[in-house]
Amino acid sequence: MIRTLLLPLSLILWLSLSAFAQDKPEPAAQAKPATADQAPATTESEAARTAELAKAAQNPVANMISFPIQNNTNFGIGPYSRDQDVLNFQPVIPLHITKNWNLITRTILPVIWQPNPSQPSQGWYGLGDLNPSLFFSPAKPGKLIWGVGPALVFPTATANELGQGKVSAGPGVVVLTTPGHWVIGALANNVWSFAGTGSRPPVNQFLLQYFINYNMKKGWYVTTAPIITANWRASNGNDLTLPFGGGFGRIMKIGFQPTNLQLQFFGNVKYPAGTSPWGMRFQIALLYPKFSKAQEEEMLKMKLEQLEKEQQQGAPKK
User: Fold this and answer.
1) Contact in structure between 183 and 222 (CB atoms under 8 Å)
2) Which among 25, 29, 109, 297 is placed 20 to 30 Å from 275, CA to CA?
3) CA 266, CA 282: separation in Å to the nearest integer?
4) 205-218 pLDDT, tens per residue?
5) Burial of residue 51 (number of CB atoms within 10 Å: 0-12, 13-18, 19+)
């Protein structure tokens, strides 16, 4: 367990130090001459882009392609205190369907390790059920950003213990606002099964994820985004999972790739018998924002300057 906890912390620290080294200014003797206001202007524009990118990365219906890879570890399951692990691949692709409307596609494909809670070592590993969601959202939203559409579940699990065996569907909605340094909102859906394996129980389940993010300097932010779930067909007392917690993250570049790193911890105030009392979520998301022509030219210039600097540093001394 300690290794599981330390790995994402070490990765965030290492990547942050790497990003700091990349962003470190050149020594005065090697720096190129610049006008009095050139450096501050460049720094200011870079900071503004990072702040804008942070808000887009935290917006579930942003007009930006992203590819989050999210690992959820749930600790202390059953009498043997087993650990469950769910690795979600979550590509987000916006589509422009009209001048005024976007269609945001959000798909979750889980890879699951599910321990047998009644045994000290047995378990199942494989794919879980595929969960695509579609959100119709205004292309030019106001202060209140929103999206509505269907949430779907398809029985792609490779073992009965990893999925529900049902085709399910229902409505989904997301609402958020971005005042100042904040991104505040919620995403919710409820799905009901209508097809699938007849021997499996029917599905009627609810999901609510509220999120509160406060963005700080240099891409850092603090966040809370617990996922509340309810199984309406479960027995009384075993129908609700209610977590509380939060963590931190950073918008940064790995090389030239904009990336969102995030780590959160949650304790479950209420949870079904035999399930996890607490868990950890680590996410790395690759971001592909759209840039204006001027921004693309500026980024190209920065890339060329960095490559030139690396070549000079790698050249043998005479």
Assistant:
1) no
2) 109
3) 12
4) 999 999 999 999 99
5) middle
